[in-house]
From TrEMBL:
PROSITE patterns: GATASE_TYPE_1 (PS51273). CDD domains: GATase1_1 (cd01741). Its EC number is 3.4.19.-. It is an enzyme of class 3 (hydrolase). The keyword Hydrolase applies. This is Gamma-glutamyl peptidase 3. It holds the Pfam family GATase.
Length: 242
């Protein structure tokens, strides 16, 4: 039986990128189609006030990346936080990427803010800090494509760091068997990262831009993270009758 995943899309792509990439929801669908666990997806763009009906049942809710700040006070962000807190309190599984990673940390007692380290772009490497049954295949290091200037600077008290780097100490975390989040973008591909870098070249500055472009020579492990996410959703903790 397929897992049912609700994708809460928190952005609209730049006009120059829509024709080729459509949206983050579509990028996640393509990513998850390449991993071995059967899953089906429904995408809701919360910027457009799209949400699932109360009677719809999902195995997990995934919050995508966004240009917005997770600590912003936009009405749509406040509505999303209320929605996610309700799901957390009733025990639903939650997944977060970039903005979603930061928003869930903030919502559950941590802190997210503009990082003094500046922009992180291109391919980034993390050391692994923890292991779990759903982290299969295992890796010694984790490499992901990134694009962010905000970071989680304090995790919720009950969170466990999975992956970190000097640049981004709280790059991935989980909270028990219920929340799993990554600062990096498993759904990105090299061509999309390159297009973002080109569009943001002026804002990034030449040094950051050039390092980002050069780093795209390295592979990334987005497919591995996608498999971890689906295994996390499918995982039943010991003693669970669910």
């Amino acid at each position: 039986m397929s897992l049912r995943i609700c994708i809460l899309e928190t952005d609209v792509l730049r006009p120059e990128l829509v024709e080729q990439y459509q949206g983050y929801g579509r990028m996640f669908e393509q990513l998850f189609s390449r991993q071995p666990i059967a899953a089906e997806f429904r995408v809701y763009n919360v910027l457009n006030d799209e949400y699932p009906d109360d009677d719809q049942v999902f195995d997990a809710y995934l919050v995508t990346g966004s240009k917005a700040d997770s600590f912003g006070d936009d009405p749509w962000i406040q509505k999303l936080k209320t929605f996610l807190l309700e799901r957390y309190q009733r025990g639903d599984k939650l997944l977060g990427v970039c903005f979603g990673h930061q928003l869930l940390a903030l919502l559950l007692g941590g802190k997210s803010e503009r990082a003094h380290q500046g922009w992180g772009v291109g391919t980034h490497r993390y050391v692994m800090n923890a292991k779990a049954p759903w982290m299969s295949p295992q890796v010694e290091e984790l490499t992901l494509l990134i694009s962010h200037q905000d970071q989680v600077t304090r995790l919720p008290e009950n969170a466990t760091v999975i992956a970190s780097s000097d640049f981004c100490p709280n790059a991935a975390y989980h909270i028990g068997d219920q929340v799993l989040c990554f600062q990096g973008h498993p759904e990105f591909i090299h061509d999309y990262s390159r297009a973002l870098l080109e569009l943001r070249q002026h804002n990034l500055g030449q040094e950051v831009y050039r390092k980002g472009i050069d780093s795209l020579a390295h592979e990334h492990q987005g497919s591995t993270v996608a498999e971890w996410m689906m295994r996390f959703v499918a995982h039943k903790p010991q003693g669970s009758s669910a």
